[in-house]
Amino acid sequence: MYSKHSPLARKLGSFVALDDAELAVLDGLHQRRRRFVAGRDLVHQGQTRSAAYILAEGWVCSYKLLRDGTRQIVDFQIPGDFLGLRSVLFRTADHNIEPITTVEASEVKDSELLTAFTQTPRLATAVLWAASRDEAMVVEHLVGIGRRNALERTAHFLLELNARLMLVGQATTAGFDCPLTQYHLADALGLSAVHVNRVLRELREKGLLTFQKGQVEILDFKGLVALAEFDLGYLDHEGPLLR
Amino acid sequence: MYSKHSPLARKLGSFVALDDAELAVLDGLHQRRRRFVAGRDLVHQGQTRSAAYILAEGWVCSYKLLRDGTRQIVDFQIPGDFLGLRSVLFRTADHNIEPITTVEASEVKDSELLTAFTQTPRLATAVLWAASRDEAMVVEHLVGIGRRNALERTAHFLLELNARLMLVGQATTAGFDCPLTQYHLADALGLSAVHVNRVLRELREKGLLTFQKGQVEILDFKGLVALAEFDLGYLDHEGPLLR
DNA sequence: CGGGCTCTTGACCTGATTCAACATTTGTGG
DNA sequence: CCACAAATGTTGAATCAGGTCAAGAGCCCG
């Protein structure tokens, strides 16, 4: 139904029924489309005057670097996600953003966003909802790193990614295309790359999933959900504002 | 200057110069004050129709529970902080809130908040700024758990708490009153209580700080900052909107 | 066809956990 | 105001999850 529109429209649409006028406003935000190549940071820590973007195609990650060179990936963004909403509010970016693949994103000025919001308040709520969902994911990520072991954590992470991708039509319960390397996974999960490799092997040997050649294949969805204590509801609340 | 007002006014006031009208609106939010006793959860996971609160006195923590009984504290809230802003947006709370001390908080209906925001847009921005700061803290927390060892992580956490408390006038660089037990620290830092105890001993033996009898005394501020790689700027950006 | 990336595996090491015992403080009712 | 129970803090010893180091294999792309 929303498939002819942007991934963002599709994502928001699954929580708030958007009418044609609202969809038009959303599409209007996708002017000034930019393309970025993989590996070259899009935003970096301490940078001032950074813009916000809506990701249209490709994957990026936001991360922080410690002085000893280790890094922690805070989150991955996939099509339909906002980039750097917070950096606009703080005048200076507190994290880096790296394109994992070639990326297409629409630059959005804060003024445009505000205009769109006043034109269509339902849109504002939907975006606020999306931002809250992102925050909830960061919290879940924190819980995972703090209290889950490597196996559960990895399973949980991949299930979450799968759920997010389903929302924008880029995954099924059978799996998804995944451009991440094991190093990305390690940096996100707070593990070493070597250990991630071992964990992936274990998941494979248990017949739960495979992570190979840019493909995640989910072999035993229920088994994974049980292992990870994954809350199937947590990403698809039935919308905050049916009213 | 703002000291006769609520801790919230004081906190926001250090980022946006609020005029008397704005302060009055803020104060107006503090109707329906409630008192909660320590230990009995104020909000719990899965609860629907939970209110938002502004914390006026005392400390609370928000946490998530895993099935095996371990818990992860996501954040502590101190006077001037909002509680459960996200639970209002999601119809159901995704975390628990436990009062650590006896707590005084003002219940705020979403409608009141929205009214206040339309009356005073600068206030809305200030609150949005505060929410972003909270999110930035969760991110920093994530980085700490993912990539810092127990000693650095503990030091960083206590420095952050100190910085936050200074904003509401409840700490100096010499230290602060702290109602947390070592168990609280453990649950927040993703460590065992036993190890927290050893880490605190090490901090004491290194002459950096003491954590005793509800008091944190900072003995060597610069040493701690160096150990924790604490970014002195990160909580006191000079305001997002001087305009 | 050679040089990076990425992945894989083994051997060894270490930071943190667990378990267990005991000390100290705080709170509570008599 | 004391006595006792519960909560909190302290310490040592054994164990383990995950990290580090090292080396090699596969593979993608210019």
Automatic annotation (TrEMBL), chains A, B:
Give the GO terms filed under biological process for this record.
Answer: regulation of DNA-templated transcription
Q: What GO MF terms are annotated?
A: DNA binding; kinase activity
* Listed SMART domains: cNMP, HTH_CRP
Q: Which Pfam families match?
A: cNMP_binding, HTH_Crp_2
Q: Which UniProt keywords apply?
A: DNA-binding, Kinase, Transcription, Transcription regulation, Transferase
The protein's matches in CDD domains, at most eight in alphabetical order, are given as: CAP_ED (cd00038)
What is the superkingdom listed in this entry's lineage? Answer: Bacteria
HTH crp-type domain location: 148-222
- Enumerate the spans annotated as Cyclic nucleotide-binding domain: 25-105
InterPro entries, per the entry: cNMP-bd_dom, cNMP-bd_dom_sf, HTH_CRP, RmlC-like_jellyroll, WH-like_DNA-bd_sf, WH_DNA-bd_sf
Q: What is this protein called?
A: cAMP-binding domain of CRP or a regulatory subunit of cAMP-dependent protein kinases
This protein's species is: Loktanella salsilacus
